């Protein structure tokens, strides 16, 4: 599927940019084509629109000042200026769409923050002309939030109408989401718009942030000595982020540390600030100087991961977390809490203020934090302040925690477990990107348990190219009437949309699946996927696309090294001892595999699943032959994922280098070399004695090629079963899909 994500900026270190990175990554992993629309200063933007840079573009600044500034202009003059730019932006998006042809659009904050009025109106106009483009408005922040409400007051009647119509708009092809229940209720009350709550998330499965070769000079470059405590505020520098409270807290820590020696805390601020916040920055610097708090302003050193990779910045924001002792999160207001989740992932203590959304949507999950206060006032300079008693109490709690390693570990690990279970991208965001967009599509079409993602899996298995499958699935579902279809009708509709060469494969797959789950079938189909390097990824896609229930993997942790402190990376017990050790382990596992076979066959008598899918390195050709000898009447398909050894070696080395770093890889060279030597021998062992008909080898290291080859092999096996068990039916149903009803009746006779 072709998907576009639009925001004012991308590829940077603000919370929205980071969330967009997460969404784009997940979508690409699912095989979708993703493009980005943002301003001309955004790394990685596919369409760079200068007008989106609302902080620096002079024409946009003039419009915003006229709309919300102290000298607001007459409606007619302002409307003309807005309309001219709207046409330019709309034309750029239209031309980009003609080139990219995206069918799903994610819009971040453009419909909720009136920071660039022409951009919002232009995107709205574009969607009005293209009702076929399904859109999800993702509203991280609103102009009526407490920190912003005074900023967007206006007397201009034209602007009042714009705010009412476009922020956010009501269009049939826009689905709205917000980050919290607080915002959900507010949106319903103010605009009578229903929205779904989809919180910020974080990828808790990514590699942990830690000191490594790429960031080893971070403390030196940041002018931080080994004896200093590093307090990190990772958010952008804005008044609503409460940076001044972080300064107060750091001052209290230094005050209580002073009697204990020379150790002091330093406050690290790596994120950016805009030109119009220089007055606020000046007040922060004066406050820090008065309280003798050292601040490290690292905007020139630190950027996003992409900026670091491109050499634009020396360090990423994640490097700051790696060296931080504590994360300060003194925000007065947040739409949710992106940096909070980052701190949870980093396994650092968190010092926070209890802002409204924290109370309603974050705190109830059970996180442990050191809370300074939920009562904030303003001083004579307009800076936020809390009571000295609250600051002192929080300081004492932190210092006790830092001195108690056992309690520290319990504290951060508990938060990590909660974060991973409640806010993990792979669980929450991935589900949203699939299910919610499909549910929206379903509301325009089929009302049964079907979706473009599920249908596209069957189409790929039928030989449709991966890049085309999702779009074809959408086209099929678009023809389904609002009242829905029966399974027979959906089958007939799908067959009619397929080219002839794919039609027969689709019919074969569906008819054999029906046969294997019918009373006529006495034996199930077993699909075995063995081999090395990439078989699990291939297996996951096959299981998802074919809707296979309860697949079994024989590479699980009980067959891996489990010794604490084991230095050998990613080594199975059998493989690092010797190549012969692999054969011994396979032999030892044979009784277990035979027992599992018996369980699956017993299960088949009761539940009639269409296939049983086994995957693992221990599924050698020798073992599979012995299973075949014990159960000769079962239908088998044995496939071995075995890229050339040079490709296997390259993949392993890249994986270890990413996990361990180049330095550690060099130190373990002897272990690695021995391991790879054994893997080469194992690869040879797996291919010995292959059955010429029942077993197949896939040597490609390209995932798309492997998937295509696998489904071609599967089709041939299913065709053999069809020719033997349901002779003539595939040909008849391919010519006349409506005969599927007669076929179902035949299976029950």
Detailed description of the structure:
The chain is 51% helix and 11% strand. A hairpin with a 5-residue loop joins strand 16 and strand 17. It has a 7-stranded parallel sheet. Strands 10-9-8-13-14-15 form a 6-stranded parallel sheet, with helices on both faces. A 5-stranded parallel sheet has the order 19-20-18-21-22, with helices on both faces. The longest helix is centred in the C-terminal third of the chain and has 29 residues, at 579-607. The model is unreliable at 437-448 and 556-572 (pLDDT under 50). The two termini are 42 Å apart. By secondary structure, the chain is α/β, with parallel strands linked by helices. Helix 3 crosses helix 4 (117-129) and helix 12 (338-346) crosses helix 15. It is globular and about 90 Å long. It has 3 domains: 2-197, Glycogen Phosphorylase B (Rossmann fold); 218-422, Rossmann fold (3-Layer(aba) Sandwich); 524-707, Rossmann fold (3-Layer(aba) Sandwich).
How far apart the termini lie comes to 42 Å
CATH architecture of the largest domain: 3-Layer(aba) Sandwich
Query: What would you give as the CATH superfamily of the largest domain?
Result: Glycogen Phosphorylase B
> What is the overall silhouette?
globular
The number of domains is: 3
GO molecular function, one term: glycosyltransferase activity
Pfam families: Glycos_transf_1
Keywords: Transferase
Organism: Candidatus Woesebacteria bacterium RIFCSPLOWO2_01_FULL_39_21
Quick summary:
The protein is 51% helix and 11% strand. It is of the alpha/beta class. Strand 6 (174-178), helix 6 and strand 7 form a beta-alpha-beta unit.
């Amino acid at each position: 599927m072709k998907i576009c994500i639009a925001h004012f900026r991308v590829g940077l270190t603000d919370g929205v940019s980071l969330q967009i990175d997460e969404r784009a990554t997940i979508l690409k992993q699912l095989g979708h084509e993703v493009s980005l629309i943002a301003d001309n200063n955004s790394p990685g933007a596919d369409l760079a629109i200068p007008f989106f840079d609302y902080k620096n573009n002079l024409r946009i600044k003039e419009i915003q000042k006229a709309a919300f500034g102290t000298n607001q202009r007459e409606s007619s003059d302002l409307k003309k200026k807005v309309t001219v730019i709207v046409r330019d932006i709309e034309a750029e998006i239209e031309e980009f769409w003609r080139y990219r042809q995206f069918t799903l659009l994610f819009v971040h904050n453009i419909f909720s923050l009136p920071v660039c009025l022409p951009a919002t109106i232009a995107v709205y106009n574009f969607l009005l002309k293209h009702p076929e483009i399904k859109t999800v408005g993702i509203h991280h922040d609103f102009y009526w939030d407490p920190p912003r409400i005074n900023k967007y007051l206006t007397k201009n009647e034209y602007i009042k109408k714009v705010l009412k119509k476009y922020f956010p708009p009501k269009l049939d092809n826009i689905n709205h989401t917000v980050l919290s229940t607080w915002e959900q209720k507010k949106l319903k009350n103010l605009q009578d718009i229903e929205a779904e709550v989809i919180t910020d998330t974080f990828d808790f499965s990514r590699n942990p942030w830690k000191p490594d070769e790429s960031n080893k000079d971070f403390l030196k470059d940041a002018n931080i000595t080994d004896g200093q405590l590093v307090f990190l505020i990772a958010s952008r520098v804005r008044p609503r982020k409460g940076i001044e409270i972080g300064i107060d807290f750091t001052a209290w820590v230094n005050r209580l540390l002073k009697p204990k020696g020379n150790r002091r805390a330093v406050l690290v601020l790596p994120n950016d600030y805009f030109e119009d916040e220089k007055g606020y920055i000046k007040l922060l610097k004066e406050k820090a100087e008065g309280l003798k708090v050292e601040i490290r302003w690292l905007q020139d050193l630190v950027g996003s991961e992409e900026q670091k990779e491109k050499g634009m910045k020396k360090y990423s924001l994640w490097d700051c977390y790696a060296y931080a002792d504590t994360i300060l999160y003194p925000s007065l207001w947040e739409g949710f809490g992106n940096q909070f989740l980052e701190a949870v992932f980093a396994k650092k203590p968190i010092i926070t203020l209890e802002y409204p959304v924290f109370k309603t949507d974050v705190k109830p999950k059970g996180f442990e934090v050191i809370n300074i206060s939920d009562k904030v006032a303003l001083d004579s300079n307009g800076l936020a302040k809390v009571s000295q008693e609250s600051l002192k109490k929080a300081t004492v709690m932190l210092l006790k925690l830092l001195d108690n390693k056992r309690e520290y570990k319990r504290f951060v690990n508990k938060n990590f477990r909660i974060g991973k279970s409640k806010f993990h991208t792979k669980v929450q965001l991935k589900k949203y990107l699939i299910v919610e967009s499909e549910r929206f599509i379903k509301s325009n079409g089929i009302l049964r348990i079907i979706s473009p993602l599920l249908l596209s899996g069957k189409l790929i298995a039928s030989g449709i190219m991966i890049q085309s499958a999702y779009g074809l699935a959408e086209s099929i579902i678009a023809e389904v009437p609002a009242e829905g279809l029966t399974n027979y009708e959906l089958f007939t509709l799908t067959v009619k949309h397929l080219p002839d060469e794919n039609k027969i494969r689709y019919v074969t797959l569906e008819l054999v699946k029906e046969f294997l789950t019918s009373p006529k079938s006495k034996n199930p189909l077993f699909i075995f996927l063995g081999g090395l390097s990439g078989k699990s990824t291939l297996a996951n896609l096959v299981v998802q696309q074919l809707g296979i229930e309860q697949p079994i993997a024989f590479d699980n942790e009980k067959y891996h090294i489990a010794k604490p402190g084991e230095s050998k990376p990613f080594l199975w017990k059998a493989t690092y001892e010797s190549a012969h050790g692999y054969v011994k382990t396979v032999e030892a596992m044979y009784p277990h595999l035979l027992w599992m076979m018996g369980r699956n066959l017993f299960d088949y008598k009761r539940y009639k699943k269409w296939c049983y899918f086994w995957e693992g390195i221990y599924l050698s050709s020798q073992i599979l032959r012995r299973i075949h000898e014990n159960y000769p009447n079962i239908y088998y398909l044995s496939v071995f994922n075995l890229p050339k050894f040079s490709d296997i070696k390259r993949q392993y080395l890249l994986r270890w280098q990413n996990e361990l770093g180049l330095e550690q890889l060099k130190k373990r060279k002897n272990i690695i070399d021995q391991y790879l030597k054994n893997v080469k021998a194992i690869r040879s062992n797996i291919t010995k004695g292959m059955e010429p008909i029942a077993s197949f080898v896939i040597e490609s290291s390209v995932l798309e090629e492997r998937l295509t080859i696998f489904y071609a092999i599967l089709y041939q096996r299913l065709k053999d079963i069809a020719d033997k068990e349901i002779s003539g039916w595939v040909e008849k149903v391919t010519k006349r899909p409506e005969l599927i009803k007669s076929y179902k009746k035949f299976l029950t006779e």
